[in-house]
Write a structure and sequence with these properties.
By secondary structure, the protein is mainly beta.
């Protein structure tokens, strides 16, 4: 495992206290169906900190902060997975930064949260 890799973070969630610490975002991870293997989703080299992860299907500007009562991320999350190239996809469409696709380490068909 590289100590120089950079993870993908969802940062437009409402801040929440978790075990006494204010959480400002959520690190995306891939897991197998049994949740016995979990990997941090990485962004490609050359991606800039804070750069938006996007896909060709996204045409609107994302919400500044998701409304937790609407459960938006929970609805989106069910369609996040990894393909045979380890790329993270939403409804089959590749998610990427300007430097390329975001990736799982080794899990194909993973649950992404």
């Amino acid at each position: 495992v590289s100590t120089q890799s950079t993870g993908a973070v969802v940062c437009n969630l409402k801040p929440a206290n978790m075990r006494g610490i204010k959480s400002q975002g959520m690190l995306l991870c891939a897991a197998n169906k049994e949740h016995t293997v979990v990997e941090v989703i990485s962004v490609p080299e050359g991606s800039r900190p804070g750069e938006r992860i996007t896909g060709d299907m996204f045409t609107e500007t994302p919400d500044q902060q998701l409304n937790p009562k609407k459960k938006i991320f929970e609805k989106v999350q069910v369609d996040l997975t990894t393909n045979s190239k380890l790329e993270v996809t939403y409804k089959g469409e590749q998610l990427k930064t300007s430097s390329g696709p975001i990736l799982a380490g080794s899990l194909v068909g993973a649950i992404v949260r």
